[in-house]
């Protein structure tokens, strides 16, 4: 791509983000400030994922959304598949197209594709069907710090999307055990076992959850735990 085109793209994307920010500020849920989450001294997603793979002696790893392979290239596991329609990984396709054709099972699946509630929910359901019985699903970007980092349409460069709504929904499912590790933008963890701390929320459509409610309840809604606790419960 030549320099002129590159700058035009950059300008277009900055313009779009600013336009969306203006739209959210005027028409959408009111900004109530920041949770001031600090992941600075917490383990990285690479460290967490590799620690789980090593502890469980996992043999197969699937990553949904790989981009520059920042995570994918660092994971050490006997079988690795990375799915991304644009760049990185090993297969150039969307997660939906991958799961339609896939018949393999995996020990660890890391979901980090399109960060929008409906897609993340689909990725979780498909991942659970492609998981070995003792397997674990991980998700990136589960703990947004403020309303704009999770707003749809996207209005910030550093954006988590509304992945958190899918975590809250699966926290209400008795068939899976769901946590969020306080590290690296929030790492969702889904165990294929009965829920040990079922969340009771009377809600039919979780896409309508309000950020305000997450802001005041995120510790219990997301079942937030430290990395030390996570590594202890991985085998329990
Ligand atoms: C945040 S990046 C992934 C970063 C990477 N996992 C890491 O830890 O460095 C998100 C990636 O998801 C990809 N993506 C977007 N929609 C997708 C989809 N439907 N299925 C799979 N990947 C998707 C994008 O192309 C992008 O490369």
What would a concise description of this structure say?
By secondary structure, the protein is α/β, with parallel strands linked by helices.
Could you describe the 3D structure shown?
The chain has 236 residues and is of the alpha/beta class. The protein has two domains: 1-30; 32-233, Rossmann fold, CATH 3.40.50. The protein is built from seven helices and seven strands, in the order H-H-E-E-H-E-H-E-H-E-E-H-E-H. It has helices at residues 3-27, 45-56, 95-101, 117-129, 163-171, 211-221, 227-233, and strands at residues 60-64, 79-83, 106-111, 131-139, 177-181, 187-191, 224-225. A seven-stranded mixed beta sheet has the order 2-1-3-4-6-5-7, sandwiched between helices. The protein is globular. The structure holds S-adenosylmethionine. S-adenosylmethionine is lined by residues 45, 63-67, 70-71, 83-87, 94-95, 112-114, 119.
Number of domains: 2
Label the CATH architecture of the largest domain.
3-Layer(aba) Sandwich
CATH H-level name of the largest domain... which superfamily? Vaccinia Virus protein VP39
Bound molecules: S-adenosylmethionine
């Amino acid at each position: 791509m030549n320099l002129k085109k590159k700058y035009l793209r950059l300008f277009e994307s900055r313009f779009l983000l600013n336009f969306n920010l203006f739209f959210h500020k005027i028409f959408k849920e009111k900004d109530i400030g920041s949770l001031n989450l600090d992941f600075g001294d917490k383990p990285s997603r690479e460290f967490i994922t590799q620690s789980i793979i090593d502890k469980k002696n996992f043999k197969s790893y699937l990553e949904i959304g790989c981009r520059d392979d920042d995570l994918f290239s660092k994971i050490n596991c006997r079988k690795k598949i990375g799915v991304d329609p644009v760049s990185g990984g090993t297969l150039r396709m969307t997660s939906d197209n991958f799961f339609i054709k896939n018949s393999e099972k995996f020990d660890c699946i890391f979901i980090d594709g399109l960060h929008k509630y409906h897609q993340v929910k689909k990725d979780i359901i498909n991942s659970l069907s492609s998981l070995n019985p003792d397997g674990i699903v991980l998700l990136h970007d589960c703990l947004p710090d403020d309303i704009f980092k999770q707003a749809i349409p996207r209005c910030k460069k550093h954006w988590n999307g509304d992945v958190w709504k899918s975590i809250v929904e699966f926290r209400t499912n008795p068939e899976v055990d769901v946590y969020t590790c306080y590290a690296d933008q929030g790492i969702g963890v889904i165990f294929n076992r009965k829920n040990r701390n079922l969340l009771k929320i009377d809600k039919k459509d979780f896409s309508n959850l309000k950020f305000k409610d997450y802001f005041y309840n995120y510790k219990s809604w997301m079942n937030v735990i430290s990395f030390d606790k996570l590594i202890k419960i991985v085998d329990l």
